[in-house]
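so i finally got all the pieces together for this one. its two components total, 834 residues if u count the protein bits. some of the lines might not be protein, just check the labels. i wanna see the whole assembly predicted at once instead of chain by chain like last time, that was a mess tbh
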Amino acid sequence: MRAGVSVGEARAAVLAEAQPLGLERVSALDALGRVLAEDVASGRTLPPADCSAMDGYAVRAADLASASHAKPVTLPVVYEVAAGGQAPVELRAGEAARIFTGAPIPPGADAVVRQEDTEAEGSSVSVRVAPASGSHVREAGEDVCVGDPAVAAGACIRSGEVGMLASLGRTLVSVHRRPRVAVLSGGDELVEPDETPAPGQIVASNSYALASQAREAGAVARNLGIARDDPADLERHFRAGLDADVLVSSAGVSVGDHDHVRPVLEKLGCRLVFWGVRMKPGYPLAFGTFPEGRGPLVFGLPGNPVSAMVTFELFVRPVLRKLAGHRSWGRPQVEATLVEALSKKPGRTHFVRVQLHRGTDGWEARPTGSQSSGVMRSMVLADGLLEFPADASELPAGSRQRVRVLAPDVLAVEDPS
Amino acid sequence: MRAGVSVGEARAAVLAEAQPLGLERVSALDALGRVLAEDVASGRTLPPADCSAMDGYAVRAADLASASHAKPVTLPVVYEVAAGGQAPVELRAGEAARIFTGAPIPPGADAVVRQEDTEAEGSSVSVRVAPASGSHVREAGEDVCVGDPAVAAGACIRSGEVGMLASLGRTLVSVHRRPRVAVLSGGDELVEPDETPAPGQIVASNSYALASQAREAGAVARNLGIARDDPADLERHFRAGLDADVLVSSAGVSVGDHDHVRPVLEKLGCRLVFWGVRMKPGYPLAFGTFPEGRGPLVFGLPGNPVSAMVTFELFVRPVLRKLAGHRSWGRPQVEATLVEALSKKPGRTHFVRVQLHRGTDGWEARPTGSQSSGVMRSMVLADGLLEFPADASELPAGSRQRVRVLAPDVLAVEDPS
């Protein structure tokens, strides 16, 4: 076990232990946000035949070479083809067929004239333009042909993928399983949110914040409840989470006499990979694994609410994204002008909660006030985390800094109307 | 009814008809992503009392003014306070109390010395530092005091808000209702995805893509199925969606003889606000409302798969976000270098499907190949939509253009490890 690792070392260590989870077949129509685990090739040609891109008339372009606004050409309309229909016979020279969007082009026709460029005259049509061959015709296979790649393994399934899979008749697809996360809080001072805390007691809010973070990351979270500060109760709670992919506890991983987490984890067969990350908030973070994957990845997060959330964001979230098969594990980042100077002692990386605003010269980042790791309200106010590097001791006001964005809404741009 | 409106006019018209939906009380622990509809003030002081931020010893700072590494000061440890516990008596001058993170500071004590700065000696402790008064003490109310604003109405509930609400014991909160969206496809050529299309038939994939877009936007979507191209069947399908907040149909709103959507909607009492938007893909878009809100907002989207998805993105998505109470309705946008020249006739705004890549000089946007409105694969490949303004006819290669980002993953930045 290593102690007091850097943020980068910790991130490398946790990601090295996370591999994409196994597969399950789910309805493509409900697979939104999941990661496809198979290459889907098209079993169909789409569109299946040359078809009309417009409502209008199917024609032979050569018949209309001389047509213009000044000198329209009139053709007899010999039949009609609706979407879903078929031309009864070949279209011969000098004939037109009424046609609708999506309908197959009759044999013999090679162009479509838009309805707007024509005038219906009884059973004939007067055409005011000279179409090029192929005008307003969607060619068979324009979208995909049989055997073409349609959606690649590793794609995050969004609405376009759902539509594509539906159009191919692929109603069931293989995706990576969602990570299962079990969350517990430890501490004799904790009560559940629907209980009234006695003096000295507080609500076990970390379990709820961490379970929410897991859900935001696409995982399935369950709450194992509150473990008391004794080895037997901790062991009982940890055992209840051993079938999860990731086990997250908060509190109890520090140096005090009351910290039973580490010995209990070791008793259960968990090997600690590292303990302590040189960061603030969040130094007392532990990470462990079970030999040969015979148990969950275990994160012992600090007990302070902000420390718990920030360490989850930095280390657990990327692991959950990787387990789910995603190829990007990070957050959007923006470069922002720091509006007030920050200072600290060198040695630990600080993650400063900031609000982001659009200034005249791009993004501005303003610390959310108290950076105490107990001030939950600072996480409510924060749009992002500004990384104050370990070796640095001063970040001047006006300097440009990178901020990882926690609130995606802050990046939204409203369109003028 | 107006015809042939601009993109901006259409956006203003649809947003003017959308107002945040009514309230419902839900479990705060399951309210992730919903918009809070009440100002939540704190009913508690957090932390409820001065408490220790570290494991160590509670002391009177004055007793340790001379303590140093060279000359430690030894104090008797008179009792222990665990988190959730209480000091039995006041701490007197010259005494120390063992204390753990989160435990209340004993009356009489004014500082905490970290365990790392001490040495336990039987029932005494030797202290190697001179703490300032207040050291490692979290003050009562440091997070919130009774009556303080905790989470404001209009906030999108993220993990921090869930934790904050839990810590206040607010297990139920008022949020805006989710929009209910009903989706139908119209056309005689359509079959469901689990059916085998006969020649001339295609899958009604638009319903699935549009329902997915609605879900991605946070709405509850249901699929009304396929309406055939006859007024009675269309009316039956539309009636089934009249209890929704938003009714979305695709296909059937064009100029052809087979388009029964508009007369059916008018028969049901829907007033068309506009028909036709000067854009590509997607001109044949209709928007209607029922007088005095006695029915859903109705969007008649074009039938081409890409036109349907792009018009949903531009007009339905912001409406769904506004209905759900969100204060930002847009997408993130980036400025990107266009890698190939684009040209078109002036008159319509084009939305060009592009892939985004990080180049040496910032984002680069590359069109996804065929911009035909039937090529679903272009939506699978697209990271964003580049807006080619209505009046413009050329966008030179190398020019900087704004792109609205459809695939949030593309913005993710991986951390070095």
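The helical segments of chain B are 7-16, 159-167, 205-216, 231-240, 261-268, 305-323, 377-381.
The mean pLDDT of chain B is 93.
anyway lmk what u think
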